[in-house]
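Protocol step 4 of 6: structure prediction from sequence.
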Amino acid sequence: MENDFLQEMGYMALATRLKRLSDKMTHSGRQMYKDLSMDIEPNWFVIFKILQKHERLSVMEIAKMIHFSHPSVVVMVKKMMQSGYLFSMSCPDDMRKQLLELTPKAHQKLPQFETLWEAGVKGVSDTLKNTRFLEELNALENAFDKASFKERTLDALYQKQIVLDTFQEKYARDFGKLNYEWLEKYFEIEAHDSEMLDNPTSYIIDKGGEIIVAIDGTKIIGTVALLKINDGLVELAKMAVTEGYQGKRIGIRLLKKAIDCAQEMGFKTIMLESNRTLTPALTLYRKFGFVEVALNPNTPYKRADIKMELKVPSA
């Protein structure tokens, strides 16, 4: 395509180009159905095919299976019902639940529709026969399922702005200051906290642990520590982010870096103790694979009411 500004824009225009391609195919398909006197819409095929395979499904079940929003499926279903291709019935096990099923008209027309759809598949596959388009599309969808466009964009933005570093003596004061501020806001400072925060080098680093800091320019705005328990076990502790920087995925980066460090240092298990009121933190730990285990009755922290562990992935 000559003189196409969207092509010049590269990845910046990816979503717009996919939308443009979808619109072109949909418009062309709609015109094709009209020319062939078929009273269906281009995106209805998925409802026909899924009900042909499963016979009866609810709107919610269809939306979940095709990863569409519930309202989008509702719009399609209403149009198909108006055209006489679907009918709705109450579920025998739950009268509040409505199930969709293909009508006799749908079953009568399906052979004709499927002949056309098979021709469409051949036309597209012939066009893409020397490419790996479907494989690449699958990879793209899977990647954005794991981390959304928003998450990836903000990661790239903040990685450029905010860097991570391992412990240096010059970071000791800010490591203590940031964590004292966090503890004073949410809990109370305990003796074990002061031992660690006042002497990070001797208490953590010299005993085989590590401290990771997040830095914006020259300012320490996030920390996390790894305390060696034994050769196979390390404790994750003192994870904190300055209030004005929360929501910028710094905690995610710190936790990922801590897990990578634990792996490089040869630890097999990471444990942590926390408090159940810290819902965002616990959600983050679970996202990374931490699971709850029995709480240590001899924990040095009064505030600790939950213990979690993560088996460190093999290198």
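Step 5 (inspection) to follow. The chain is about 50% helix and 20% strand.
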